[in-house]
Write a structure and sequence with these properties.
372 residues; 6 strands; 3-stranded antiparallel sheet; single chain; mainly alpha
Length: 372
């Protein structure tokens, strides 16, 4: 096949000069042979260069092997089967970001190392430990795997067989998923496999709370050194870990001041004190501002006190009791969310606590006072 030269012809018409090039049908935008006209020779020369380049590309295509032609045909068929109106060239253009991400060969191990380093200054110590524990479990199965090779169905099946409890499974997914989302934002991955996993349904268990009688029995069983600690758990909903970081200096002006260093989420909040809590704290005497609220050997002592009172020792039961009775008594979700340290848009309180306690029980609960 002779190489086309695309000669430029000078044409005069109505006193004007134009430059024309003959374009064969296989290179014409309309699919028909035609002449193209240009007002300057420079424009015509540029078009001639484009046509020569296209011809060279076309001639290379005639050198494709039969296998390559069949492969291209199959690719076009798959594009059509997907309902897409794309040329093979356009399909490759759209797929290139994903192919480039896959070509980076970032392993899960490297991702977890980089993600942990990036989040080091934002995480609390508890968050660091939680991610490290979940990452260790994840890597027992996925260590060495390239991010782009993890299939959502494969990942979902692994979670299903590895974690019998739906709640445990949901916790593990919530802990690991942000690392993959982080990889997507940094263009290390085209799409997170978690994005196409089916949601995990968690079987919600009724929350455990103390009855007013149990709460009163617990407070009556407290020696004076432990009275303030249990009062803060039951009547202010302080988290158990936060309690161990509190000093008497954090309790003042009718509020319990939870600083960033104390809070689980590093979010500052001030918990409004109920009248019976004020009475219980006053009954313990005076204290120095830097004195810890919890007595020494608190974990062992708190278990023994619960055992003496005959109540179960689930750590979050006092906090659940506080939330349930506060909501039943005051019906004020906004204040309760602020006291507990929940996000304003969280639905946890509505889902878990709205029917957990009756107004009558709430009245009894908030009437628990120290003996005179």
């Amino acid at each position: 096949m002779r190489q086309a030269t695309f000669s430029i012809r000078r044409v005069k018409q109505n006193g004007s000069t134009f430059y024309s090039i003959y374009v064969p049908a296989y290179l014409s935008p309309t699919g028909k042979k035609a002449y193209q006209y240009f007002s300057t020779k420079a424009d015509a020369e540029r078009r001639r260069g484009e046509l020569l380049a296209a011809t060279r590309t076309e001639s290379k295509l005639t050198e494709l092997s039969n296998a390559q032609v069949r492969d291209a045909q199959r690719a076009l068929e798959r594009i059509a089967e997907a309902g897409l109106d794309l040329t093979l060239d356009k399909a490759i253009e759209l797929a290139l970001p994903s192919l480039k991400a896959a070509g980076r060969n970032i392993s899960v191990d490297q991702l977890f190392t980089d993600f942990s380093a990036a989040k080091a200054n934002d995480w609390s110590e508890a968050s660091k430990r939680s991610f490290a524990t979940s990452a260790k479990t994840f890597l027992k199965r996925w260590s060495g795997r390239i991010l782009s090779t993890i299939d959502p169905d494969e990942l979902s099946a692994w979670y299903e067989v590895s974690f019998a409890s739906s709640g445990y499974r949901a916790h593990e997914i919530r802990t690991i998923r942000p690392a993959f989302s982080w990889a997507v934002r940094r263009k290390l991955l085209q799409e997170s496999p978690f994005a196409r996993m089916e949601g995990v349904r968690v079987k919600r268990q009724p929350i455990a709370i103390y009855t007013p009688a149990e709460a009163e029995r617990l407070m009556r069983s407290c020696p004076i050194e432990a009275r303030a600690a249990f009062a803060l758990l039951l009547f202010a909903g302080v988290r158990p870990k936060e309690l161990t970081r509190l000093t008497w200096g954090n309790i003042r002006d009718g509020y319990i001041h939870i600083t960033a260093a104390i809070a689980k989420t590093q979010q500052v909040r001030n918990i409004e004190m109920e009248p019976n809590l004020v009475a219980w704290l006053a009954s313990t005497g005076t204290h120095e501002p830097d004195e810890p609220v919890c007595p020494p050997d608190w974990v062992r002592k708190s278990r023994a006190i619960r055992a003496d009172a005959g109540v179960h020792a689930v750590p979050d039961t006092p906090r659940h009791s506080y939330a349930s009775y506060h909501l039943a008594a005051h019906k004020d979700l906004s204040t309760l969310k602020a006291n507990l340290g929940h996000a304003p848009n969280s639905d946890t309180l509505f889902v878990h606590y709205r029917a957990a306690a009756t107004p009558r029980d709430a009245e009894r609960y908030w009437s628990i006072l120290p003996s005179l």
